[in-house]
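Preliminary data (for renewal application), adenosine-5'-triphosphate complex.
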Amino acid sequence: MSKTTDEQFKNVVAHAKEYGFVFPSSEIYDGLSAVYDYGQNGAELKNNLKTYWWKAMVQMNENIVGIDSAIFMHPKIWEASGHVGGFNDPMIDNKDSKKRYRADQLIEDQISAYDKEGLTDQAEALQAAFDKALNSDNLGSLRELILAHDIKDPISGTANWTEVRQFNLMFSTQMGAMAENADLVYLRPETAQGIFVNYLNVQKSGRMKIPFGIAQIGKAFRNEVIARQFIIRMREFEQMEMQFFVRPGTEMQWYEHWKQLRLNWHLALGTDAAKYRYHDHTKLAHYANAAVDIEYDFPFGFKEVEGIHSRTDFDLSQHQKHSGKKMQYFDPELGEDGKPYGNYIPYVIETSIGLDRMFLLTLINAYEEEDLSTAEKQDSRTVLRLHPCLAPVKAAIFPLTKKDGLPEKAREIMANLKTEFNLQYEEKDAIGKRYRRQDAIGTPFCITVDHQTLEDNTVTIRHRDTMAQERVPADQLDRIIGDLVSWNNVLR
Ligand code: ATP
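Predicted structure:
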């Protein structure tokens, strides 16, 4: 990582704290590793990202519905899904620093480092060897690669590594008051299983016909050994997942469909397309017959933000086997042979995006330290160029001064707008300072109420991105703000 990108990232993290987006959890007790809290502006931004996803997936698609399943589920679910037996990461310890790392990530970081240094041949060779090692399922070969490329522990600076071992990522706890007799339950490591076990309930109660989808947003928990890069890898995080149930044999067509649609969802926010790339999996999870990651170019390299997986009928078949309940769907439509397709277990295409990674991506992409210096004076501002639909505060209302009835007028204007938009009222400090504070949290509009407002009911509206100001009738504010923050701008 070059110094400048490293610094840029540090600035974003500091900004996120200073302006109420993200705080370390339990900070007054020195924090809890890899757990974070969202502050007043962070909670709004996160809610807006959820709304954007929910609208794009559920509201815009007649054949997708949303649910909200519990975090605790029957422990057998995690046996059926393969998480009890196989939800492991390959870990390696450095004998000098005594620090533990994910072996696969050390290698991925080395590939990114080669890429950054322009050593394309080395990057490609290591990628190819890495893919081969993953496909062979041989943990020893990961260690060999680490040694062969002289990958060093950033802390000790040595390549004195242990063997690679597997580590299960699920958190467990006991259900019931008597810990000794109680059942072991897990905190879900993904939201997807809550969808699979409700698939028949939703299909029957909603009279859903294949193809159809079930979406949900919710917390997931993974005891990540290495927590790094701020909210990229957390132990408690949030996922937005959708399982799309299709007729067997049609899954590749739906996989391509969702691969494209999900990238479009990201790009509709105006993010530079060059910042995104697809990463096709060569090593497939036991349940998948195709998988791709949508990756974003973070300051520390490309990282997965979302996965699109063709999960076959693995999960539903497993639940049928482990629960003894039939997971079949009756498809009355006629096939080419003129007969109904009849009973089958649907195949599934999954789209799974990490809300916290999307949040960080959004923040990094929006953050700008803008130089406003002129020949006469040095000046700068920090501005979050968030898409207006995502901005935590849609408009700030400022009385020019604290007297002459201006605060009362400003509050009256605010009262007319606040059922529709999240607004902030500010009367402290000079207008310029107030602008800067709103720029720093990404507020698209600042509305100033001055003496002229009392005469003709017009206000000035100042645009965040251009800093241009115009005078508009106060009774048109709902339309002006509404047009800019409308979901029509991103969903059509
Ligand atoms: P990684 O390889 O980075 O650990 P993964 O392949 O295990 O991710 P999935 O199981 O496919 O991730 O989960 C779907 C999405 O959930 C990921 O694309 C990511 O955005 C998010 N996610 C997964 N683990 C975490 C975590 N520990 N913290 C924050 N987000 C996460």
